[in-house]
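Input structure tokens:
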């Protein structure tokens, strides 16, 4: 589990599922131009976590972007996958909250499992 999540769990909150970026991010132009350092840092630092109370997403190393949404405030978690995404096990996760909030996160490993675990916890 990541450092951010460890430091921000509330009392009696437990991690149910955690995933990271898929290894595919190493095959991007930014990966090639930075000698795979940027994707390695992203994969190491970014956190996608479902707890028994909320969904926590933290991206960024120097500047940080976080999404922390209580499970009862999330309408759905959508997964978009290309053909390659289905074959290799990655996709784009879109978290839709009450009030019309849409947050998308591409190239997430085990995206379907992330949605499945969210559905199990939220029901």
């Amino acid at each position: 589990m990541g450092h951010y999540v460890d430091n921000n769990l509330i009392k009696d909150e437990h991690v149910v599922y955690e995933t990271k970026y898929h290894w595919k991010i190493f095959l991007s132009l930014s990966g090639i131009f930075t000698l795979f350092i940027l994707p390695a840092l992203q994969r190491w630092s970014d956190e996608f976590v479902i707890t028994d109370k909320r969904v926590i997403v933290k991206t960024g190393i120097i500047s940080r972007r976080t999404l922390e949404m209580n499970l009862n405030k999330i309408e759905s978690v959508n997964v978009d996958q290309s053909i390659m995404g289905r074959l290799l096990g990655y996709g784009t996760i879109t978290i839709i909250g009450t009030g019309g909030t849409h947050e998308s996160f591409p190239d997430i490993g085990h995206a379907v499992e992330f949605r499945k675990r969210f559905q199990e916890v939220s029901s």
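The beta strands are 15-19, 47-51, 54-59, 65-70, 74-80, 90-97, 102-109. Residues 111-122 form the longest helix (12 residues).
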